[in-house]
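Sequence, please.
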């Protein structure tokens, strides 16, 4: 797995893990709909250019920090910042100002996102984008805890202890005795469990399926195994 930094991850395996340990405003459900996740509501203006997002109450990161609208503002600006080098920054192109920022023509402050309060922010689009709610489910649109990203810098997301989580699980590494075997567990995060329509069992099943499909690979000479531990 290359990274759990949702701004820069590109490989499918990292996507699969991020889908279990991080959460966006929406999540594509089993029926192919853009269902609400971290968002309690998303209101769209009649002209399709302004999205008003209200977050669910009492959202927290796995380290106990509050998850607020500012975490989205920070994350989105980081994604379009040319200095970040996000390969999926182009997915932000629907947001007003994004393409000019990516090409170095405008400042980060021109991005069409503004925090109105801790739980509400507005997004201005460059043009009506009917599939924008689906874009919001992409990792590049996920929030980030700036305090943690600033602390670890380029090392953020490179290991389980240098990552902070907002989804239903966290990715945790444990060692087994003196053997050169590392186990990675998907551990439920009790402080950040959010209420949504999807069934927790489906997430557990997905984790097991991923373990079967990606049951082992060689990384720097070590055999990496994946396991799931239900702690609730």
């Amino acid at each position: 797995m290359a990274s759990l930094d949702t701004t820069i991850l590109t490989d499918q395996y990292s996507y699969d893990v991020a889908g279990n340990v991080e959460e966006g405003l929406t999540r594509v459900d089993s029926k192919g709909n853009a269902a609400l996740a971290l968002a309690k509501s998303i209101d769209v203006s009649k002209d399709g250019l302004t999205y008003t997002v209200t977050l669910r109450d009492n959202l927290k990161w796995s380290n106990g920090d509050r998850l607020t609208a500012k975490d989205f503002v920070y994350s989105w600006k980081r994604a379009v910042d040319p200095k970040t080098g996000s390969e999926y920054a182009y997915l932000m192109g629907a947001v007003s100002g994004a393409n000019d920022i990516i090409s170095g023509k405008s400042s980060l402050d021109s991005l069409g996102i503004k925090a109105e309060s801790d739980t509400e922010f507005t997004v201005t689009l460059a043009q009506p984008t009917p599939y924008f709610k689906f874009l919001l489910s992409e990792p590049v649109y996920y929030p980030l805890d700036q305090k943690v990203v600033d602390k670890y810098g380029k090392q953020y997301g490179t290991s389980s202890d240098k990552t902070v989580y907002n989804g239903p699980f966290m990715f945790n590494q444990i060692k087994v005795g003196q053997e050169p075997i590392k186990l990675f567990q998907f551990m439920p995060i009790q402080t950040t469990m959010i209420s949504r329509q999807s069934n927790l069992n489906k997430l557990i099943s997905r984790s097991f399926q991923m373990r079967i499909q990606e049951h082992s690979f060689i990384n720097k000479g070590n055999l990496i195994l994946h396991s799931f531990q239900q702690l609730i």
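The chain is about 20% helix and 20% strand.
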